[in-house]
Amino acid sequence: MVHPRPLLPAPVSREPAPALARLDWFTAPDSLPATEWHRSGRVAILLVLLTALLYLAIGFLGPSIVTLDLGPRNGSLLPPWNIDGPSALRNEWVVTAATGLAIILGAGGMWIGLRALAAGWLPRLRRCFFLGVAICALTITVPPLTSADVLMYSAYGRIAVLGMSPYAITPGGLFRTQYDPILRWTEGPWQDTPSVYGPILNWIQIGANRLGGDTVHDVVFWLQLVCMSFMIIACTLTIGLARGDRQLQARVIWLSILNPVLVWAVVVSAHNEAIAVAFGIASFYFLRRHPFIAGLLIGIGCSVKATLGLYGIAMVWAYRRDLPAMARAIIGAGIPSSIAYFILEPEALSQAARNSGYLSEASWLFGIHALMGTFMEAESASVMVSVLGWVGMIVIAWALSRALPHRRLLGLSGDADPRRDPLSIAIRTAVVLTVAWMITAPYSLPWYDLAAWLPLALYGATRLDLILLVRGLALNLAFNPGRTVGQSELMEEVIRRIRQAGSTTVMMLIVVWVLLWWYWTGRRNGTLTGSRVEDATPARLPLVTAAPSTVGPAPPRQES
């Protein structure tokens, strides 16, 4: 008897999965599939990774008009590391174009990620968080890019180590009287400007100089490490406030630790903004139960940078219906601030106030200042511009306070009134004040945006997501590079035109955009002078206003 031959199983396909499919490692299993590239979490993650690879490559190639020259290593094995790459790859036009491409890709990834979240994309929270941490950590393995501010931090610490006050002595003034291995690496235009930073930053700069010795390379590394560490701390604290809400945590991760616009401005350029903001975010943890501790943390943050006082105003406003709590918060804030500014470093406060008198080429007021200069003295024009900045801030803050609804934030029950919850009020007010200050201040830089992005991430989706993204893109491009050395005359002219024409125009349009948003929101709500209370929590709202669909909160689950 002949038995039929059994059929062989069909051969298993060995074709590799599409390259983009591997990025699904960052996507939760219950996430809705992407239907279009501009709402794809895969594409968003890919652009974030490409952005990081670009600026790491630019930094590793060595000194250029974008990458800082940190001088001889003197045998040090510490990062940052770089090679002396081919001069063709470090040409001023090549590196400027490459950094510009990185900035644009990062902003594009940010926008696509927001749309993906609105369309139902749910990332794996821990994996995306640690991806952001890894990107920040890798950033300090190469020299800082686009800005030489970190060299000024080194110089101020050096002056203090030498027994002088960085609030009275300038790096340029001291270097003209004696040679110094740290001061010689500073760059214009701030060499003849005393420190405008708070006492705590002064102590951090002293510590970096103690550890780095006479090698500016090592001093810069310790400053990079501190800035990066506090960036991670600030973002981690913000993510922790959103615990228990997967959608909100996903939003916070995307707008903070994985935000290419912020990572570029704060970590890649080694700016100290995150040190102050970390204390401000930490204060939110104590607003509901411990006003004194919340105030204490705000006071410490103000001792880092005086501009964190905006968070302090938000805290006071949150307690306006509870005067005993307000008093405890003010006392808490006053203790470290008074010790720092009036006892230990009395010159610091007056120098910090100098910052309000500067005017940036990229400011919305730059053209107005130039116009005023045609029919009045320069000093009078500067005073008028400063007044316009303050008036503009008040107007925009009022408009935002009408346009932004009151929301129940971070565990507040659906029956509670968010207008009486100190945490909900403080976060909303912090968003209002920081955004109003940033878009109207005569002197505003892209790394200042960190103070607004973090509370905005907690507040939930609004049109401000797109407004801040456009602002960050425009300013990062305007300060690419932000240095003033090593540039040809043609490059200087191109940068000047980008700042004085392009960026200034964008900043003016942003001010108009906010006012129009207030107007149309008021028309829709039936009042231009009142604000409404939303029934939904931020997790139930679309994460970008342009998205047509919304997603309800996913059930809680453990994810790896």
UniProtKB/TrEMBL annotation:
InterPro entries, A to Z: MptA/B-like
Q: Where in the cell is it found?
A: Membrane
Q: How does it sit in the membrane?
A: Multi-pass membrane protein
| GO cellular component assignments | membrane
Entry keywords, A to Z: Glycosyltransferase, Membrane, Transferase, Transmembrane, Transmembrane helix
The record lists the membrane-crossing segments as 43-66, 93-116, 128-145, 219-242, 262-287, 294-319, 325-344, 381-404, 425-445, 457-479, 500-520
Single GO molecular function: glycosyltransferase activity
Q: What is its main location?
A: membrane
Matching Pfam families, A to Z? Answer: MptA_B_family
Which family is this sequence assigned to? Belongs to the MptA/B family.
Q: What is this protein called?
A: Alpha-1,6-mannosyltransferase
To which species is this protein native?
Answer: Naumannella halotolerans
